[in-house]
Structures are given as structure tokens and as C-alpha cells.
Design a protein that fits this description.
- With 229 residues, this protein is α+β, with helices and mostly antiparallel strands.
- The protein folds into two domains: 1-51, no CATH class; 68-225, no CATH class.
- 35% of the residues lie in helices and 10% in strands.
- It has helices at 20-28, 33-48, 69-96, 109-114, 120-132, 213-217, 222-225, and strands at 103-106, 135-141, 163-166, 172-175, 196-200.
- α1 (20-28) packs across α2 (33-48).
Length: 229
């Protein structure tokens, strides 16, 4: 492993600010260039006053992000919430048969209108149906999107695309979870306007095997959720 090297004396084991040779040179030449530079640096430091540490996460002073107790608490809390969401999601997959190979189908237009869908939502329905067709085969999941955040956003089941699918024309894309999963979006007012629903379910008993240990433990999305990315 490389050791630090001084840019003044070129010796290893220390850097320029702590170099014994430059300190001796300043002592021997109090009016020289290095002595004047050192005094100017000291004056600027004194004018700034003592440095106050400020945490980049909670914005409080006296500590940094590394030692922030608020961040530590939020990490634990978010991990617990993510694990709770993961459990509900896996149970949903097993109950409704959501697993690679399952077929999803677009919900009847009348159902969306009955739920209050209009304008852009209806245009999106027509556009996606004509572009991709009314069926989609599940090929996998985007585990980075499958987190507790889906429980709270009003876009849930509308634009949070996390199911990997292949359409009859061969095109691949990501779409939101089907209508049957609205039960895990307990804080979402718009979750009823889902475009997709389960068509032909499959055996999803091994769905947990599709996910990483980070996702299962609830830690995968924490940095993004707390704005640390």
C-alpha cells in the first residue's frame, strides 16, 4: 500500500503541512516566502473563527453524517418498513400468482371510468393498448422500485413501473403492479386507477428466490429513500 509523500522534501511518511524541513526553514528565515505564507494562512484561519461541524443529513451542528443519530434511527425505521412491505408483496405474489410466466391484461375501460378516470388517464389507456396490446407476460421485477415508498405515493399502480414484461409484439418494458396489489398501497388515493390486472396466474411459491438478500433485509433502497444517493 502506497504511503503519503511530502511535496516539499519528497520524503515518505508525512505531508507538506507537517514537514519538519519546511518548519525549520520558516524558523531560520522568518521574513522568507514560506514564513510569510504561513502567517497569511494563520491570519485567514483566525479571521474565519472556529469551524462548526454541520451534518449534511439532519442539518444540525455539532456532528457530521457519519455520527448522526437521526440518520441511524431513520435507517433502522426504513429497513423495518421495507421488510414489512416485502412480506406483504411476497404474500400478494403467492396469493394472486404473480411470477414470471404469468399473464397480465388491461382492465376494462368501463371500470376505469367508473373509478373516475378521465382525460390523460383515458388517453394513456388507449395509447398503450394500441401500442402494445391488451396482454403482457411477466418476466421479472425491478427490486429497486419495490420498497415501502410504494405504500405512500399517489402514483402507485399508475406510474411506478416495477414489473418487467414482454408484450405480444415482442417489445419489452416495465409496467406498474396489477390492480390486485392495491391492498399494500394503504396511503395511496389514486391506486384504484390501475391499467393492469391479473389475467392468467401461475405458481408463485418460489417468488422469494428472485430477490437479493439486500432486498429481503430491507436495506437495498434505503440510501435512495433517505436522499443519500
Amino acid at each position: 500500500m502506497a504511503t503519503k509523500r511530502c511535496s516539499y522534501c519528497y520524503q515518505r511518511g508525512h505531508t507538506r503541512p507537517t514537514c519538519p524541513e519546511i518548519k525549520q526553514h520558516i524558523a531560520d528565515n522568518p521574513d522568507g516566502y514560506y514564513a510569510r505564507k504561513a502567517r497569511l494562512k494563520a491570519e485567514r484561519k483566525a479571521a474565519r473563527g472556529p469551524t462548526v461541524r454541520k451534518c449534511s443529513y439532519c442539518k444540525e451542528t455539532g456532528h457530521n453524517k457519519k455520527t448522526c443519530t437521526t440518520l441511524k434511527f431513520d435507517r433502522v425505521e426504513m429497513r423495518v418498513k421495507n421488510k414489512k412491505f416485502a412480506k406483504a408483496f411476497i404474500e400478494g405474489c403467492k396469493s394472486f400468482g404473480l411470477y414470471p410466466g404469468a399473464l397480465l391484461e388491461m382492465r376494462p375501460l368501463e371500470d376505469l371510468k367508473a373509478e373516475g378516470a378521465r382525460g390523460y388517464r383515458l388517453s394513456q389507456y388507449d395509447r398503450e393498448k394500441s401500442q402494445f396490446g391488451a396482454l403482457a407476460m411477466v418476466t421479472g421485477f425491478s427490486e429497486h422500485v419495490l420498497s415501502h415508498d410504494l405504500c405512500n405515493t399517489d402514483k402507485y399502480l399508475r406510474s411506478e413501473s416495477c414489473v418487467s414484461v414482454r408484450f405480444p409484439n415482442g417489445r419489452k418494458s416495465f409496467i406498474p403492479l396489477p390492480y390486485e396489489f392495491r391492498h399494500i398501497a394503504h396511503n395511496s388515493e389514486g391506486c384504484t386507477k390501475a391499467l393492469w390486472k391479473m389475467g392468467s396466474p401461475v405458481d408463485a411459491s418460489r417468488v422469494l428466490n428472485l430477490f437479493s438478500e439486500e432486498w429481503k433485509s430491507g436495506t437495498l433502497a434505503i440510501n435512495r429513500q433517505l436522499g443519500l444517493d
